[in-house]
Design goal:
The chain is α/β, with parallel strands linked by helices. The protein has helices spanning 14-18, 21-38, 60-70, 93-105, 118-130, 162-175, 189-204, 223-230, 248-255, 271-277, 304-318, 325-344, 353-364; strands spanning 46-53, 76-77, 80-88, 111-114, 135-137, 155-157, 180-186, 208-215, 236-240, 261-264, 285-288, 369-371, 374-376, 392-397, 400-404. The N and C termini lie far apart (91 Å).
Length: 406
């Protein structure tokens, strides 16, 4: 009977049968190595995430909670190990650019989280666009992501925009019969962009802006600026600043006898600010991320459950009362990446241009993702994706954050 030509029916070769056992094992190992080399490297690749954070300098109170939160982010996503590389930009734009270049050219990261502050984030945009590496900023200004042009194509953010928070301030001031408002902000991109939004929404609510002053993060005094503001007799003053330096204007206003309303932006949403400002900030207001007052939120608020979960994780690691909004923004950035990585893996292995491009596309396609600040629905023209549910009005009362229902 003729022998079948099917490979399975062929008898093993004489050579294979009579090789010594050790040689057969060696050949088998060699064959396996060849097969492994021919397979995609996906299973062996590692996702690398760089973080550019303000761990020192005036914005350290923003960067440190972000670093501490990074320690809680998952070390495995979709079967791939994840490495987080944290660099300190020292609250300096030049250092932020250098850190970003290093992460892209030397560490070959797949995405970058940071920076903690608006000027640094703006300075990083050109670098991440040139390196075609997606970036998720932890800073407030809408200018970081708007308009979504060829460079901002690569840039996303998790904090609420200054426009969202300025509109909340104007709404609250209007309901409290504020007719005139002054502004004092940092002499940088944060201060300028927040002032523009405050002035715009004040006008919509028929509130007259009567003064606008600036100060540097490192200034020891703002007495001169405050005296100019008081000369206009405003009903309310808005402070456009972030971190502990933002405590200086309200303290000076109170020292000089100002009795009107004082508003902060969400750049002060941590306990370090409360500690530095002390009793001078009692009775002041800020539009804040939900995580700041998560336990006080209504049961049906979309951010409540995840915010409480994040708080429990963070405080288990760092101690009671240590959580801040700036850590939650990092946690949400991690959630975005965790949601996007499984999709991007279909296009290529971590460490490749194909993976980075697919990761960017997956971030932009995020729909209906609940996080500690609300629900994210991004698009080609919206690289934040949060709606008005992502902000709540908070009053500082006896050194604590108190939720103010509408």
């Amino acid at each position: 009977m003729p022998r079948s030509n099917h490979p399975a029916s062929k008898a093993p070769s004489f050579l294979a049968l009579h090789l010594p056992a050790r040689s057969r094992i060696a050949r088998a190992a060699c064959a396996l190595a060849v097969v492994a080399a021919a397979l995609p490297t996906l299973a062996l690749a590692q996702v690398k995430i760089g973080l550019v954070l303000s761990l020192t300098g005036p914005a350290a109170s923003l960067g440190i909670p972000a670093r501490d939160t990074a320690a809680l982010l998952p070390r495995t996503i979709a079967g791939q190990s994840v490495e987080y590389i944290v660099l300190d930009d020292a609250s300096d734009t030049t250092q932020a650019v250098q850190d970003t270049k290093k992460l892209i050219s030397e560490n070959h990261v797949d995405a970058i989280i940071g920076s903690s502050i608006t000027p640094n984030s703006l300075s990083m945009i050109d670098v991440v666009a040139d390196g075609e590496t997606p970036m998720i900023s932890l800073a407030s200004s809408a200018k970081i992501i708007e308009p979504v042009d060829a460079k901002r194509h690569w840039v996303f953010k998790t904090p609420q925009t200054d426009a969202m928070m300025a509109s909340a301030i104007a709404e609250h001031a209007s309901t409290h019969n504020v007719k005139t408002m002054a502004f004092i902000g940092q002499a940088d991109a944060l201060g300028e962009t927040f002032y523009a939004e405050v002035a715009k929404f004040a006008q919509l609510h028929h509130i007259n802006m009567v003064a606008s002053e600036r100060f540097n993060r490192t200034d020891p005094s703002v007495t001169g600026q405050v005296l100019k503001i008081l000369a206009t007799h405003p009903d309310a003053v808005v402070v456009g600043a972030a971190g502990t330096p933002a405590a200086l204007p309200p303290k000076t206003l109170r020292e000089r006898g100002f009795k009107g309303l004082i508003y902060h932006n969400h750049g002060v949403a941590n306990n370090d600010f409360l500690r530095v400002c002390g009793a001078d900030c009692n009775g002041t207001f800020l539009p804040a991320p939900p995580v700041l007052v998560a336990a006080q939120l209504p049961a049906d608020h979309p951010a409540k459950r995840l915010a409480l979960d994040y708080i429990a994780r963070f405080e288990a690691a760092r101690g009671p009362g240590t959580v801040s909004a700036f850590g939650s923004y990092t946690w949400d950035a991690g959630m975005l990446i965790g949601h996007a990585v499984p999709v991007a893996l279909k296009a290529g292995a971590p460490g490749t241009p194909e993976f980075r491009r697919a990761l960017r596309d997956a971030l932009e396609a995020t729909r209906g993702l609940a996080d500690t600040n609300g629900v994210v629905n991004m698009s080609a023209t919206d690289h934040l994706g949060l709606d008005q549910r992502a902000r709540v009005m908070v009053e500082i009362t006896n050194g604590k954050w108190v939720y103010q229902p509408r």
